[in-house]
Amino acid sequence: MPEVAIIGAGLAGSLLAIYLAKRGIRIDVYEACGDIRLDAASAGRSINLALSNRGIAALRGVGMDEYMLAEAVPMYGRMIHGLSGETKLLPYSGREGEYINSVSRAGLNVALIDAADKFGEVTFHFGRRCTDFNCESGEVKFAGGGSVHADTVIATDGAGSAVRRAMGSCVKGFDISQEWLDHGYKELHIPPSGGAEFQLEKNALHIWPRTQFMMIALPNFDGSFTCTLFIAHKGEAGHDTVPDRKINGKPAARVAAFDHLEDEASVLEFFNDEFRDAVPLMPTLTQDFFANPTGDLGTVKCFPWNVGGRALLLGDAAHALVPFYGQGMNCAFEDVGVLDSLIGQYGTDWETVYENFGALRKENTDAIADMAVENFYEMRDATADPVFQRKRELETKLEQTYPEYFSKYSMVTFREDMPYLSARRKGNAQDRLLMEICSSVEKVSEIDFDDVIRQIEALDA
Ligand code: FAD
């Protein structure tokens, strides 16, 4: 009998397998899909993720950080693209060495599975989709028949977790909420020019904020960019941003939503109006638009995460976030690090480990889930707002001048020593103050920085 059954060999599950194997625990990992290492070469275009300090710290714990960063593209700030193609770089931090990293999702997953597979303690079982979990007996059932019993089950089977679904019907008082945004997403592609040349500034996360919708682009190691369009699924949620649109000579605002982008002509017209500097860089725009799936964006919160010592939910299975803080994977990796230190403290007394894990993590994962939704509105609406842009400029200046000052973004992204909940509380209070200050001036140079720092210190008191 295996000691631990991990369900899902995604990002969290494969990192967890490495951590547990290092402690000498025997692990069987059951993954619904085939072995990504065999599929990766044919998987085609890269989908990327922003890796930052919390995730890097967890990778460092198993000696994988430098290896992953060697294939990452650093992003030093947000490059804002206006309607007529003008750009402005808003640095993520005023401090040197604080930046985020664009990494390939498949590349990271392959590296983690490869590293886990080197341990004799770890056995991967691909093509095994969990369909049910029995809270009484601890039995895990699989599609097509077959089941296993383990000392304990750790479910890292992602946002649509089958184990979480089973817990919903067998754990008394299981509390779950799932909230979906009106917006969905679609991945698109900017290829490299001349083989490997980046067609946009390489070291930035590009954003085309358009109030009701937006597009972003992250660089890939091969010179391409993965773009993601975030827009309402259905028409009522938004109109486009071109104020003087006319059809047959009459003003006509266009509804900006997936269900109104129904053919090549409407997609091209929309992109030419809204993202005109990007269109010439996207030769396969319409093919990609109709070939790639449209994804949903939701927040899942639930509790408890454990069934005694028999099972635990971890990563997206426990707390799926919308992607607007770039923290889902980083948070899932942080989960793994916290679980490992609790095993260090309590050994394989799984119930005690799991109870402490829930007590430590729940308020923090709720905090990052809420901040991720808030950041959606900030990226979509506020990054184009001059007061917000002044606030970012002020934050950068404060970070350059006062080493002890951290913006909310910096606390979440670069302070792995600070729990998400503390970052949210302190960050929101600072944000309110700085927005107020920036709305009363025309230029950041009019602001007395020492006075701002004094006001921030007074918030802490
Ligand atoms: P997953 O990575 O989803 O892995 C789950 C694994 O379980 C998969 O291998 C799946 O095949 C397997 N599985 C599923 N069901 C079963 C089953 N029934 N039985 C067996 N196996 C199963 N996070 C960041 O930190 N930075 C970013 O920039 C970022 N960008 C994102 C952009 C988008 C558009 C989206 C949607 C998410 C983004 N995220 C980002 C979030 C990140 O992708 C997730 O938080 C992260 O993948 C969670 O890891 P996980 O291992 O918990 O789940």
Please give a structural write-up:
The protein is α+β, with helices and mostly antiparallel strands. The chain has helices at 11-22, 36-39, 53-60, 65-69, 105-117, 162-170, 264-274, 285-291, 328-346, 350-380, 386-401, 408-414, 420-439, 449-460, and strands at residues 4-7, 27-31, 48-51, 73-75, 77-81, 87-91, 100-104, 122-126, 130-133, 140-142, 147-148, 152-155, 175-190, 205-209, 214-219, 225-232, 246-247, 250-251, 295-303, 306-307, 311-313, 319-320. The strands form 5 sheets. The chain has an 8-stranded mixed sheet, sandwiched between helices. A 6-stranded mixed sheet has the order 8-2-1-12-21-20, with helices on both faces. It has a 3-stranded antiparallel sheet with strand order 3-7-4. The chain starts with a strand and ends with a helix.
Topology:
Blueprint: E1 4-7, H1 11-22, E2 27-31, H2 36-39, E3 48-51, H3 53-60, H4 65-69, E4 73-75, E5 77-81, E6 87-91, E7 100-104, H5 105-117, E8 122-126, E9 130-133, E10 140-142, E11 147-148, E12 152-155, H6 162-170, E13 175-190, E14 205-209, E15 214-219, E16 225-232, E17 246-247, E18 250-251, H7 264-274, H8 285-291, E19 295-303, E20 306-307, E21 311-313, E22 319-320, H9 328-346, H10 350-380, H11 386-401, H12 408-414, H13 420-439, H14 449-460
